[in-house]
Design a protein that fits this description.
disordered N terminus, globular, 344 residues
């Protein structure tokens, strides 16, 4: 028998001895019987999240399932997460700002839940809807791409890239199976066509297109000035600092996401996007969380020990305190314990 989440809210419970595969059935029933339309489930890792998503597609095909991945780089790394992955995260966050049309289950990992995210207001008015036959200046479209993390390329082949040739703009929007070719006549968008990334041949027409950011950082005047002020307050003078100089000039820099807190007055958590959603966890999520927190602390200590000294072939890395970008154990426990849900 499943717990009655309508009467036990916000009591938490444990479901034991559920074999692999049964967890999808159980979770689908819990979501269906919950008093809240949206539910959050935290898996151990990406493999578990993918398996559970596939199982839910079979056992609960009418349930809206959103997968929110963590960054695919190490804590305090010198590289950025992949644009395609960032686009997946942003797509989920933007969709969570809209009321659920039916039952909705958000899947994430321990790593994804631990990491703070841009505040909800960061994505307000950052979606651009265009359609064939509409009026939009190509310069406005290029400006949208440049300010929202898209990368200009000679030939578009990967999500998050765009190219411009005369009155034609190619773009590979996140979530699209193929890149798109936008044909302009002046400021009129005459046609939106899909094309194959390898052959560059068009394969069909699209009536409309929704464009979303592919970066969690928007390099505009406000965020840039907040970064500059916060960086100097945290680390002092920033002379000959490539990161500081690039951001000051409005240019993206590899790994800049690891200073995400400096671009906003405050960061949110996934819980802030889901203020009433019950939260359930894999049975090994707690152990995975503890191991992840130990890893974050180790990476931070390693970076801190070298702060101010340029590494071989690189530049001096100045890490922000871990709690500015990640939840600690106390905050995790507080956020999870205050919700209905359980462990399975």
């Amino acid at each position: 028998m499943l717990p009655d989440t309508k009467t036990l809210h916000p009591v938490r419970y444990s479901i034991a001895n559920a074999p692999e595969g049964q967890d999808a059935v159980t979770l689908a029933r819990l979501v269906e019987e919950s008093s809240e339309p949206t539910w959050l489930h935290i898996t151990r890792d990406d493999a578990c999240m993918a398996r559970l998503s596939d199982s839910l597609a079979f056992f609960a095909p009418n349930l809206e399932v959103l997968c929110f991945p963590a960054w695919d780089c190490l804590p305090f790394d010198r590289v950025s997460p992949r644009r395609e992955l960032l686009a997946e995260r942003i797509d989920v966050l933007i969709r969570l700002l809209q009321p659920a049309s039916g039952r909705r289950l958000v899947l994430t990992t321990v790593n994804g839940f631990l990491q703070r995210v841009p505040p909800r207001r960061a994505f307000v008015d950052r979606v651009l809807e265009i359609a064939s036959g509409s009026e939009i200046a190509p310069e406005r479209l290029i400006g949208f791409f440049q300010h929202n993390g898209y990368v200009r390329a000679d030939t578009v082949g990967e999500p998050g890239e765009f190219a411009m040739r005369g009155g034609i703009i190619d773009v590979f929007p996140p979530g699209s199976a193929q890149p798109l070719r936008l044909d302009f006549f002046g400021d009129e968008l005459e046609k939106i066509r899909e094309f194959d990334a390898l052959s560059q041949r068009t394969t069909g027409d699209r009536p409309s297109l929704t464009l979303k950011p592919v970066s969690e950082i928007v390099l505009e005047a406000g965020p840039i000035e907040r970064f500059r002020t916060g960086y100097r307050e945290a680390f002092g003078a920033a002379k000959d600092d490539p990161l500081y100089e690039a951001i000051s000039a409005g240019r993206p820099h590899p790994g800049m996401e690891h200073w995400l807190p400096l671009f906003y007055d405050t960061l949110d958590t996934l819980c802030d996007y889901l203020p009433k959603a019950p939260i359930s966890l894999d049975h090994q999520a707690q152990e995975t969380r503890n191991a992840r927190l130990d890893s974050i602390a180790d990476f931070y200590a390693a970076r801190k020990s070298l702060e101010g000294a340029a590494e071989s072939g690189g530049w001096a890395y100045r890490p922000l305190p871990a709690e500015r970008l990640y939840l600690d154990a106390e905050e995790w426990d507080r956020r999870v314990a205050g919700r209905a849900g359980g462990q399975m």
